Amino acid sequence: MAEEKTMYDTIIIGGGVAALGAALYAGRFEMKTLLIAPNIGGTIINTNEIANYPGFKMISGMELVDNLQNHVKEYNVEFLTAKVEKIARSEDGCFHVMAKGQDLHSMTIILATGTEWRKLGVPGEKEFTGKGVHYCALCDGPFYKDKIVGVVGGSDSAAKEAILLSQFAKKVYIIYRKEEIRAEPITKTRLKDNDKIEIITNTNVLEIKGEKLVNKVIFDKEYNGSKEFELDGLFVEIGHIPLTELATSMGVELDEKGEIITDRKGLTSVTGVFAAGDVVNTEFKQAITGGKDKIECYDHPPDFHKIEFT
């Protein structure tokens, strides 16, 4: 007699806002759902202030995630703390998800694997990571009280990192490779009104130097008469890289940026595989656009629980 296997209607891979949003909808529709992630939160937990999520005038990333997770727990959604090692598909169409030594079965997969910080890729970055080079102002900004720090990047996120750092540091420099930063109007106004923040444009960081800790960076052009620029810390905010290793292994189609291509229902190029959140080729990488994703698996779902596995 064949060993009975637990069959899920869907397995969600990821622990961020998009994954929790998908779990919420799946739970409400009484789908047998499992969410797998090494940790819950995603990159948004490093955000100090969120002011554009409807229903909250101001909320931290950690608070938002806690609220979402508690909401998901109102439904019959299972959680597994683990990293997914592999996903395979059997001849009967079932997906086999290998995680934490388990072979888990599901009729559908939702990839909400998110992104990781994009690195500068310059000499000294790797050596000084955690020793003056950082990727999260909320996490590491308090270490730089009354110090001089730099933020590499020109996005709204980079500008907000600089504003947050100004609460601790005595001086914050935004270093951007183009002519003008791309922050939202309200963020630009806050930068302008902040005496601690100065913007250096048309400039790239070529190297990071120091002894035990960072003490300077090397620019590709002179600033105030020198290419050497003294800093106590450097925060890198130049975007994210989509985490699509699992998607690639399954043959899911990606765009030129390496993001997962989906249709309006979140369906990828592989039948039964859906995707949501920052890993998808959406224009806006925002919690409100990723967290509300509803995965409409089938117009007439099959009876998943009657499928037999050998």
Following the backbone from N to C, one meets helices and strands in this order, namely EHEHEEEEEEHEHEHEEEEEEHEH
Question: For the terminal residues, how far apart are their CA atoms?
Answer: 9 Å
Class by SSE composition: alpha/beta
What's the architecture of the largest domain in CATH terms?
Answer: 3-Layer(bba) Sandwich
The main β sheet shows up as: 7 strands, mixed
- Helicity range of the residues? 10-25%
CATH class of the largest domain: Alpha Beta
Number of helical stretches of at least 4 residues: 7
The mean pLDDT is 88
CATH superfamily of the largest domain: FAD/NAD(P)-binding domain
Q: Work out the strand percent.
A: 25-35%
The overall strand count is 17
The CATH topology of the largest domain is FAD/NAD(P)-binding domain
The tally of structural domains comes to: 2
Structure in a nutshell:
The chain is of the alpha/beta class and about 300 residues long.
